Amino acid sequence: MSSLTYPDGSPVARTYTDRGQLATVAFNNTTVDTRTYDDGGRMTGSSYNNGVSESRTYNTDNTLAGITFSGAPIEDLTYGWDANKNKTSETITGTMSGYGFTVPSSGYDDEDRLVGWNRSDSNLDQAWNLSLVGDWNSFTENASVQSRTHGPTHEILSAAGQAVQHDAKGNQTLLPTSLSPLATSLSLHWDFENKLLGADVDNDGSDDVTYQFDALGRRVARDDGTTVTVFVQSGQQTIADYVSGAVPASPTYTYVYASYIDEPVIRGGTGGLRYYHRNQQYSVIALTDGGGLIKERYAYTAYGEPTILDSSLSVLATSLSSNRYTYTGREWDEALGLYHYRARMYDSVAGRFCSRDPIGYADTMLLYSFLLKSVLGQVDPSGFFSTSDRDVSIASTCLRQQVQTLINPGTQPSPVTDPSCGMRVMELALEGELHGQSEDLMKDTFKTLIGPGLPSGIPGHVADAVVDALLDISLTGDTDVGSTTDVRDRVEGILRKKLGDHFDELERRAIDAIIDTVIDGLSVPEGCQRATFSGSGSNEESSCQMTIFASAGTTRWRSKYSITDGVCFYKCKPGNTTGSVHKTQRCCCGTSRTVTFGPISGTANNTFGGGCTDFQTNGVIK
């Protein structure tokens, strides 16, 4: 997403590198974050306009080696990893050094699950005894052992001898003190879609905090009995908080994000600007103000129990900055001591979600599991799936292949060896991991296709505008245009709206060159079967649901098709002799259908089943 205007009128603008990576973020017409990358596409630096910046270095296997901060006394971070890319340490320099951690040599089991974790100051050691599925049979903290029992669907029945209650759908309705982050037990109430409706914190039989959700399942309001807060959503991100009844011009807070869905950069509103600083896991470790002064610091246990500190390292009972974005960038609800992970609520004391996975047994038999493996390195922004850098890489490759296949069904991309390839695309889409990236990917693919046809000297904004115009046509599905002239007119109309008075002959040349390139790109892909037609005069021939017009010296095209029914790609070009036309063709259809070529002398009908077939029909073009 390049630009967005918030309800109070504040503009947010983003620019991207030639490779589609986030370059800058601007808020209220001021650039607040500037980013740099290495040749491998890894972010190497981020500089805020309050004078605080970070630098990142990487190991040869692309794991993050360290983060160095400057401009504010935010302690530097150094990471250790084992051969399976499990995080083994986070070393923190300076005054926060005691909040680092190490994983002992036996800290991961044979399935790379965390079973041991020690804080650097030696004041907190944790260990887990896991079942084959991943239930915590017991949990040890500083030599104090908590035993748990589980039911047939792996719900917790008891912890430290205290009963845990669930409703018929498996949602936890009572968290005893042994599992509650609070000093008392916690009662939870759920709706028919397993969304948290309310919580009784003081055990008086009535909800102290209630929530509301929209039709898309997004949390849009919170009522704590004193204040009703309304959350304004853009996609799956909260971009503004309002007190119920406030006018659009008066938000309590506004939030601006970087490229990852849970990567807030800056918060505006009450109390002034606050800048977010993160570790490898996107967990917020510090807040700075507009002058670069540290306002709060944050530290976490292995499963995310937060410790909030002020600038002088005094531990706070609650955030004095009213900040709720903490562990893995998700929202911490202080009243409940739970995290809001969109689809589900997460209990960091229990180390699991409070309800079952909405997608069922897609990736584990443990429906309450939080970050199946690599709990120290992965994220789960949606509450559906855990995500690692490798998952993102796989999904990105899959998505690029899918986009290429949609543009050119004849391509046969090299398969990704991971069998979960397609699933990861879906998962990341559900998580919002691909939010705002699909359009950039489409643009990048379009640019790759049309790049060779761009006349020299075409400004970047012109090429971008033409690509945007083509995307506007293709993504709406309204491609019923009769010729390249029609395409040109459509693109020109959209482009004039985008460029206004800046539209000139250079833009028209760009349109012509790009459209010619796109049409020429509708050729039979290498390795596909081919059929050839030749003759003189002009013709109109149809196949599948695509119509081609071809005549000597010109090429015009019309496309109107359904991806599920089939797509045909053609290349038409003038022949060696005046008036002759050569055509190559390949059809790929999902179902059996009859294809008629005409008008040709001796019209031929051909029926073929699903898949790709070449046609050897020959005829004299009338």
TrEMBL record:
InterPro entries: Rhs_assc_core, T6SS_VgrG/RHS
Keyword Zinc found: no
Enzyme category, top tier: hydrolase
Molecular functions per Gene Ontology: hydrolase activity
Signal peptide: none
EC number: 3.1.-.-
Keywords linked to the UniProt accession: Hydrolase
Keyword RNA-binding attached: no
NCBIfam families: Rhs_assc_core
Protein name: tRNA3(Ser)-specific nuclease WapA
Gene name of the record: wapA_7
